[in-house]
Specification:
By secondary structure, the protein is an all-alpha fold. The chain has one domain. 70% of the residues lie in helices and 0% in strands. It has five helices and no strands. Helix 1 packs across helix 5 and helix 3 packs across helix 4. The longest helix is centred in the middle third of the chain and has 21 residues. The protein is globular. It starts with a helix and ends in a 7-residue tail after the last helix. The mean pLDDT is 84.
Length: 98
């Protein structure tokens, strides 16, 4: 999660500009898709509980991550990057936290 927050911090001007324009559904979908792929690759290192569907877990976490980071970039949330990382980490299922 720290790397994802760092990426948003490093590219804050770009993401803020995109958010200030009218965002198309395709852009949001693409962002969630990219995050889902990254989260799925990280989840391969953790044993999922029986019956867990990694694609569903990863998509859910990606959508929540995207929404939280976009709200932060819009100024709707007052948090430091470290606080964002901590909260995003809490969103992860306990079985895939470091």
């Amino acid at each position: 999660m720290g790397r994802i927050v760092d990426h948003y911090v490093e590219n804050r001007v770009l993401y803020s500009a995109v958010l200030s324009a009218s965002i198309s559904f395709d852009l949001v979908t693409a962002a969630i898709s990219l995050l889902t792929t990254r989260i799925l690759s990280l989840m391969k290192h953790f044993p999922a509980p029986q019956g867990a569907k990694p694609e569903i877990v990863a998509t859910s976490v990606a959508a929540a991550t995207n929404g939280l980071l976009n709200a932060w970039l819009r100024g709707d949330l007052d948090a430091t990057p470290a606080q964002l990382t901590e909260e995003l980490t809490r969103l992860l299922p306990s079985w895939c936290r470091l």
